[in-house]
Amino acid sequence: MRALPLKPQGLASVMLAVLRREVSLAMRQKGEVLTPLVFFVVIASLFPLGVGPESALLLRMAPGVLWVSALLAAMLSLQRLFATDYADGSLEQMALSPTPLGLLVAAKALSHFLLSGLPLVLMAPVLGLQFGLDSRALGILMLSLLLGTPTLSLVGSIGAALTLGVRGAGVLLSLLILPLYIPVLIFGAGAVEADAAGLGAGGHLSLLAALLVLSLFFAPLATTAALRISLE
Amino acid sequence: MQWNSVSEFFAMGGYALYVWGSFGLTAAVMLIEMVVIRNRRTELLRDLRNELCSESTTS
Amino acid sequence: MKTRVIHWFKFSSPQNFYFLAGRMWPWFAALAAVLMAVGLWISFFVAPTDAQQGQGYRIIFVHVPASQMSMFIYIVMAAWAGLGLAFNTRLSGMMASALAPTGALFAFLSLVTGALWGKPMWGAWWVWDARLTSELILLFLYLGFLALQSSIDDPRRADKACAVLALVGVVNVPIIYFSVKWWNTLHQGASVSLTSAPSMASTMLTGMLVMVVAFWMYSIAAALARVRSIILERERHTEWVKHAVE
Lengths: 232, 59, 246
Known about the structure:
Number of helices of chain B: 2
Number of strands of chain C: 0
Strand content of chain B: under 5%
Structural class of chain B: mainly alpha
Mean pLDDT of chain B: 87
Radius of gyration of chain B: 23 Å
Largest interface: B-C, 30 and 36 residues
Oligomer: heterotrimer
Largest sheet of chain C: none
Helix content of chain B: over 70%
Order of helices and strands of chain C: HHHHHHH
Structural class of chain C: mainly alpha
């Protein structure tokens, strides 16, 4: 008897299912979601402690400091992106599924953004106030983080896939992807500074958007290749 | 030839530290790299020959 | 008339390449030595004193070749990596691994000689200009490659993972350079640049060119010599290696 053709799952619904899975798994370990956020606050507070409370200096430093802190905090949770699924075998199932692995990877990166990037975006204004940024600058900061953190998640997934199951994966991952994060950092922090200098943040924000589109297309490709290598 | 004396050559118009430092460091790095490559090979050959010896004696 | 066909693809086997590299590298080493001697002669005895920088400018005869080669080697590394991923050849990954240390050392040299050039000329050991900063990031990319390689035990997996990393890196290098240039001009405006060498006498250019080619020949010799050790290490359990080391 001929097997009945299975109704193909819509790609969007598959990706949504991955997103829902990631979020519900993360909600069971709320601490793991909150830790990077707390890390963000702590690092950002270290800088004034290191350079002194002079408000003019802090105001000048704020965009860079907040962006670096957000970048490091976003990077913290990258290791878990594939490690837990790799450990219990569900990653191999994903690799074998009929849905293209690239789409599943993109969905995972997107869920990483929702769980770690988005909280950073929402937390940033609070920290920005500590540095004396005005409301306009805070708005640009949030927008730059909103455009930049998905890119950080997408590029970060490449590093997470490359270092899967490797000794010292955490620090190695940072070493691998921090150079790749530099353009996002430059345009993200630069947007806030450019706006403060009266030059307008448009150029920087468009470049951030361009980087996001580029990484949306190419990062899943590289991550898929890296995953297949790690799963061999 | 623009050097009037050997000491002038070594002085490099006052920039001796920087010029000779750069050239010296470059030479040192290249030499060390060559030595490291050579040592890697000799140690490897030694290890492989030892392996062969022990294999043939235990067979 | 009988024509001999050279089957080039036979050299993609590590065994054949081992012996080919063994015959080739001394020639490249000799070429490098000769060109280095000629280049040094031009650097010190032919190229004139610079009007603004005196004798200090002569550092460019090592700084420029080092930075050129560090960038060129990274591209060649990425090309070998791409070949290895596309054709699943063992040798390509070995060549990429053989090139990486030399490239990293040149990136390091470029930074240090750049600092030694900058201090007397512009008063600071380090300036955050676009070229130097990009070179620093290139060094980080090299170090990441070397770190990833050493942390994965299985050599095949390490080669493939590093290949993906090298390809991602090579795509990012123009993006990084562009963003660093943007960053630099925004923050410092008309800053001093280590590339703005005032009107170069033709002898200076010749000297630089000779040194660049000398460094290039050296890199090839070093990579070929190094890959021989890598081949022996990886293929140690094969019959041909056992015969080759007797």
